[in-house]
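Try it yourself: sequence plus adenosine-5'-diphosphate, in.
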Amino acid sequence: ATPISIIAGVGRAAQSGILIRNGDALQQAAKLDTIVLDKTGTITQGKPSLNTTYVADGQDAERLLQMAASLERGSEHPLGETIRAAAKGKGLQDLPVKDFNAIAGHGVQATVDGQTYFIGNTRLMQQQHLALEPWQARLHALDAQGQTPVFLADSQQILMLLGIADAIKDDAKASIQRLQAQGLNVIMLTGDRREVAEHIAQQVGILTLHADVLPADKSQVIADLQQQGHRVAMVGDGVNDAPALARADIGIAIGAGTDVAIAAADITLMGSSLRGIADAIAISKATNRTIW
Ligand code: ADP
Ligand code: MG
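Structure, out:
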């Protein structure tokens, strides 16, 4: 492509709400064969809501929700925000929390009233050697509905299980189908559990997924695909996605996502729609053919 056609292509993309950082990304987009999509905030709206609350025998649900929200006070994770919002909606005040520690890909550990508490996924519960067996039936009930489980525990036992659901973006399925129709292999990548990921993947027509991926391992999934000879775009919104966005042949950030993701990306899609991915590739192909 000529410099003039690249400038024209970047301008054409901008009119469609696609911000391209450099002309090279515009030219390379036509050569992609694989699109890796983060789940939370990329395929889903990233505005999860608390749908289900299960408490252990003899426990008080409100008191535990208050505890959960207090532990999540320092968290930047969307699940933490959801739990805080639910507690606030019930007028519950935060308890004083000490020794807050966010454990990437797992959850949070913190101290209240001299007691250590944990809030997070099954991986965190297993790491603390907490018995999951009594919760299996309820866990499977959440899995069947595609709800993400969040456990609250002290150092002895699990106290509560929350089910949090995140709606799929309105145009996610159509955007993914368009990519597949362009001959691209579309893959989902998430730190969430396989059961939840499969539920979402099925609804948007994604056949390949990598679930339970720790934040530090997301970029390795991209590197492995590249090693196999693929030209890979990564699409993400979160701080956790930044290394994978940087590693990919083309990193594409959701404009409604975090500044860290946008800074790591070559292309930013304005707003939250995924429509711009296929548009960017089409504009890239047109630019390489220099048709305007
Ligand atoms: P993703 O954004 O793809 O879900 P993350 O790596 O951010 O991936 O998180 C992976 C998983 O770790 C989450 O799905 C959740 O189960 C758990 N987790 C992480 N942070 C928190 C938190 N603050 N509260 C509860 N669970 C958390
Ligand atoms: Mg995300």
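One thing you can check immediately is this: The chain has a mean pLDDT of 95.
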